[in-house]
Amino acid sequence: MKKFIALTATLSLLISCGSSDRGELVGVRGKKWKPEKPYGMTLVPGGAYIMGKSDDDMANVQDAPTKTVTVRSFYMDETEITNSEYRQFVEWVKDSTIRTRLAVLADEQGLTPGSGGIGEYAFKDQEKEEKSAYDQYMEDNYYSVSDDPYAGRKINHKAKLIQDPQKYPDEFYVEVMDSMYLPESESYNGQRTVDVSKLQFAFKWMDIQAAAKDKSTGNSREKRSKYLISEKVQVYPDTTVWIKDFSYSYNEPMHNDYFWHQAYGTYPVVGVNWKQAKAFCAWRTLYKRAYQKAKKQEFANAFRLPTEAEWEYAARGGIQSGTFPWGGPYAKNDRGCFLANFKPDRGDYAADGALYTVEADSFDPNDFNLYNMAGNVAEWTDSSYDANSYEYVSTMNPNVSDQKNKRKVIRGGSWKDVAYFLQTSTRDWEYADSARSYIGFRTVQDYMGTQSTGNQ
Fold first, then answer.
1. Domain span holding position 392
2. Which tens digit of pLDDT belongs to each residue from 10-64?
3. Which residues of 239-271 are buried (b: 16+ CB within 10 A; e: fewer)?
4. Do 214 and 312 fall within a single domain?
5. How far apart are CA 389 and CA 277, in angstroms?
6. Is residue 355 part of a domain?
7. Roughly how many angstroms between the first and final C-alpha of the chain, as a whole number?
């Protein structure tokens, strides 16, 4: 054994002498990398600001005392996530669900590509000889011992799905497609509706906060697996919120059309709870990284919900102590025009030009080029709500991430709120499993590096 170690050390020395570093400490050289601004996002340069209410707390909530904090740089969606963008997520989940069901049934029937019918949708590794050495190793050592018999199997995304029922290739394809819809007995008006309960997105995430605080000794892999959380979330938004949120009110047209009709494609998605917003972030990360992997590019940081402190910093747009994102203390400009979509008067929702929501890029953006950081829809943040949190959170990237606390902070106010809730410092909350017709979200991505700050 000692001879082997000595030989290894000698070989390492020879390799070092033959390299181009001349025996100097030059570091590990990787691919050249530069920041890439994600599509539809803007860079919010980090810096310090006074978080909390710098003016009178008219509602006397007393949950936002002033506190100077500093946040790091990050990219943020210029607008709220729109119906069209969220539909891309839903359609991806639907497409993947159908393809997986086709592949499973093909596997059960022993069908393979070339055999026709749903065999064209069989798992890509249906034939053992098609597996790479890596895939075979993972199959033998991990997937074969998993509780899921189809773990690690790759679905075929190239075969085009057939939408016309009259052109379904075989009875197995009919069986799969039929399983995705509500029974014929539950259809009306000549429409057969997709069973949205089948549209579920499964993902994993790690509770790094809890893992970092675990002081117990033991196997590091066991500790890691303890904080690796698997979730499966139904992704279709709750369109009934337009009815449930308002008693004795006729909002059926919004329930019927708002999410799926292209007339509302650029309007902010609503009816999405906190867990669904988190699932969207996980999918967006997966979707982007799949492209980057195919192009052999470096992975970008994950998409996520903003923390409460990040959201307020972004909403202020670099204006210290401004009441609203545009800085001034009034909700109208000098020409008497409203600067956001909200409820300006008792019972009068349309004085600002809109009864419900407006397009996500309506009104002027703030100085960070962010639209509707006040009004339109309130927005989910990643932070848990605690009325006293400003008293104890860190002054560097403050956040309260408490998985047991089901109250999550929402910010910005909405189309049905009075001006107080539009103020950059006003805090509000909703339960994580609740969906509302006036709550949406936007995502952020951490900026790689520290050279971009608002203080430069």
1. 42-82+241-273+280-456
2. 444 444 455 678 889 988 877 777 778 999 999 999 999 999 998 777 777 889 9
3. bebbeebeeeeebeebbeebbeeeebebbbbbb
4. no
5. 23
6. yes
7. 57
